[in-house]
Design brief:
Order of helices and strands: HHEEHHH
Largest sheet: 2 strands, antiparallel
Structural class: mainly alpha
Strand order of the largest sheet: 1-2
Number of strands: 2
Oligomer: single chain
Radius of gyration: 24 Å
Number of helices: 5
Helix content: 55-70%
Strand content: under 5%
Shape: elongated
Length: 145
Amino acid sequence: MNDVGLSIGEIARRTGLSVDTLRFYERAGLLTRPVERDSAGRRVYREEDEGWLEICTNLRATGMPLSEIKRFADLVRAGAGNESDRLDLLRDHRERVDEQIRRLQKFREVIDYKVAVYSAHVAEGTATNLWTGTASTSKTPSKAN
């Protein structure tokens, strides 16, 4: 566009969000300020919008519901005086992210174990002894499977 701002296409390219997602975020009240319009009615984004959209994208990617992102945006739009509310919202979300990380780490440990088992069997040429998806005749499950 020009030095006045960024078109919706430019902000979409910069943020990796689709034009439809940007429009949705605007309608849903997830932005911290109204998106300006040029004389032809086209949206004009600012550099600060790009930074805010990155925050929104990160919050979404870590599982924050849109309703909480909206609450956060509402608090930011309201201005000074509610910083402790914003902090509480972010701390609560961080706690949920930490729990996700703990769960993923447990999943990772299982995967690491399976990689080690399969690596050993492949190296030894005994991979055909691994689980094949058919019922085993043994009553004791094998750790190698």
